[in-house]
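Note to self: the last two entries modelled the partners one at a time, which told us nothing about the interface. This time every component goes in together.
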Amino acid sequence: MVIVINLHSLKRHKLRFGVPIPSAILTLVLGMLLVLGGLWIGQNINLLPVDASANAPIYDELFRVLFSIGTILFVGIVGLIVFSLVRFRRRPGQLGDGLALEGNLPLEVFWTAVPAIVVLFVGLYSYDIYERMGGMVPLGHGDHGSETMVDQRIWGGIGSTQDSQTATTVGIAPLPIEVTAMQFAFLFHYPDGDIISGEMHVPVDRPVSLKMEAKDVIHAFWIPEFRLKQDVIPGQPTVLDFTPTRTGNYSIVCAELCGPYHGGMRSSVVVDSADDFDSWLQSNRKIPAAEA
Amino acid sequence: MTITAPQKTAPTSPSLQPEGWLRYLSFSVDHKVIGIQYLVCGFAFYLIGGAMAGAIRTELLSPVSDFMARDVYNQILTLHGTVMIFLWIVPVVNGAFGNYLIPFYVGARDMAYPRLNAVAFWLIPPAGLMLISSYFITGAAQSGWTAYPPLSITTPATGQIIWILSVLLLGGSSIFGGINFIATILKLRRPGLKLMQLPMYCWAMLGTSILVVLSTPVLAGTLIMLSFDIVAHTGFFNPGMGGNVVVYQHLFWFYSHPAVYIMVLPAFGLVSEILPVHCRKPLFGYTTMVYSIMAIVGLGLVVWAHHMFTSGTPPWMRLFFTIATAFIAVPTGIKFFNWLATLWGGRISLNSAVLFSCGFIVNFVLGGITGVALAQVPFDVHVHDTYFVVAHFHYIVYGGSVFVIFASIYHWYPKITGRMLDEHLGRLHFLLTFVGFNLCFAPQHWLGLNGMPRRGAEYDPQFQLVNQISSAGALLMAISTLPFLWNVIASAFYGAIAGDNPWRALTPEWLTSSPPPVENWKGEPPLVTHPYGYGTPANEIDLNSASGSDLWRGGQ
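The predicted structure of the combined assembly is written out below.
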């Protein structure tokens, strides 16, 4: 028998079926509907731009999990509030107080434990995601440990690898690019070929290793389609590694307030096929072509 | 401005204090006068900060910079953040309601240090006026409310120095207030009143004041060092002179993350006072609420680096701060479930105070969920410094604290003025604010996820439509203040007479006249050991016919 669940019709059920539906069953069914609905929303509503780097699908996986959990919690709590406000509102002529209920220890232990477990799960899961993105790789302490004395500490963002420890994608050597951020532009220097460009060109499916430095104030290097961001800090080089996976033209956005033209500090990254990238590299070799 | 003076003052009132409305412009040491001074002054700055928000949303109607010059845009966004945090939310949730309510709640006739209290308030108007006037005189600071060096060192120095001076004054005011609250709550309790019998707002203010006293001096020291870098060309944070810009971020966020709790913990306390009265139920889980507040205070001090996941932070630090931050969700969650349980089975009056409180719960839950997501490093590296973060913290400080400020004004206005606010206007105010707020900020989550960074006057044209929706929401929010303003001004003169205790509440501020006399009570302060003793069995005292004062007088 299919029971139509209606929040406001507890009494009607009692009349129609002769016996009250036990509230435990109602709660269970509602909870299951809530969880299924949350999972469906988390999996099927896409709020993110296209994914164009190796770690973007990993990020999107984390996003969908967080979105599902968030939806379940939010809808559940809002549902409870709306239900309480409607069901327990003071009706005209009612004068008395509510239940003199000061607490319920098992209930409180329950809703301390459940969020703690959820948070622990989310933390462990995001740690796993972080590791898969290469975030836990030591930041060049292997070969740069001694250089800390000469102020050459390398700090980095996700996917940072100074050593080849995280050569995730087969055995291809990463493409090194030096990024200089200044008010209000990014400059890209390719040591291989000594090319300076105002636009970043990278080949698809090859790891890229950025070494970034700022000339004046703090900037941030962000490619939304790559799900990556790293501050570019004056006096302190930072690194960022990624592997583009989808050809196309994507925006590079400065995400740290850097002055009046901060909103206009943008560049673009062109993800080429390997052949197109090689021809771009050849045609620009030794000719410093700084584009705006 | 919205306050009518009591018709007759107690004959024993100290004559050294000014009488009548002039009290509110004087160096009064009466905690109620100071509370109202904080509230009205804070609201004036809220209107100024809101006008700035309007200017920002107007600029963002189009993807190009066409409404104001780019450097003016940065000045406005800096002032908007600074005014809203340091001149509106912090002074009002702490100073205004803290000063008005805490002495009542502990059964005292005033704060522990009444003169320090007045000094703390009177630091605020000059600091605020100095900050705002810097815009007209020299140009205001342009480096955001975070004032990260080297940007804050390289932008025009005068505006930045004035910004530092006024934040130092406001921080000093906050510290004075914090010391005063700690002393009052711990040392001025009426004999016989135990700590675990205090209304929850006392615990919230105790926790908040501990945070204020521990972390605000760090901000003060940091800003003094920054001002040396600007004026005396020292090199604390100047990379050109061997300084380190990331150290500034650590020091800044060591205050500014706890500052979030300084803005929301008192709001949690205020909601805990409002809900039981209008639900006619005891506050659910008093003891766990107290421990959650203290847990939030402790954890709140060790999460600051989650603002710096994309700066230069080593992996272990990212991991530690992820876990610490995510765990704040647990004590916060306890409080929210306790409020839900307080609503459950109550006899809820659906008035403006309750609507704003429930609006707060809805908004804050969303802000909390995005907060747990932002605590995860891999999630944060994409959306850090984007409109996702803008949406998140507006859900916390506007959807959270500001909604509670409005709820509190609807709840305590009858006590402060002796007259009721108009309920229809109050509900209209709630509806406009709730719809406008969500229309303004919910779409910004999407903007951030899809590539719009914070703090830019220009943006990618693909985001124009969503920005226009957001601006429409901001317009609704601006309009929503009109019924509120009309309500508080008109009701002060023409509102229905409230009586001593219109909500039949049990907390001590209602057990005196409205407005209360100088020194709060004629005769002994009441001993309220069960501030949430609603829903008592009918055979004891009939709460329908008895007023709160009958309870503590024993029905005489």
